[in-house]
User: What shape does this take?
Amino acid sequence: MLSTSDFRKGLKLKIDGEPYYIVDFQHARTAQRRAFVRTKLKNIKTGAVLEKTFSAGETFEEPDFEDRKMQYLYSSGEDFFFMDSKTFEQINLRAEQLGDSRWYIKENEEYKILFFEGNPINVDLPTSVVLRIVSTEPGIKGDSVTNITKDATLETGLVTKVPLFIKEGESVKIDTRTGEYIERV
Assistant: This one.
């Protein structure tokens, strides 16, 4: 069992049968009342953010989470297929479950898949990935005072802004949290 004294950012817990993780929390106390904890929780399945207040000492059921390393095989329409390298078991995640993560996964790469009560719900991505540029316009030099960027389509279908000197076929490092260009690789 987990209690409010165990709260920390990133802690995963189960509330009303749904998996959440703590985005932010604050212990508080008023003059004549019991202490309480204000939390900001994010639903792991849907991504919805919920603000909730708990009494100090309240206990929670520990969720049945499991992380498994799986290799991304391919996508077919809205389904993305992964395989466990040890058992060769295959699972699929829908595009809605992956959300924006689908733009950063590459075929034959291994990722940690989060399972909740035996069902796959989410992919744990690294903070940055290296992707190849499939198409972009040629850069035109001119008088510029600031950094000028252009659109580039990456191998996964993601369109992002890159500097003018980047050409088709080059690889770039992309931040998976923001989708922004970091550097040329």
User: Anything to note?
Assistant: Residues 82 and 117 are 18 Å apart (CA to CA). The longest strand covers residues 65-76. The chain is about 0% helix and 55% strand. Residues 95-98 form the longest helix (4 residues).
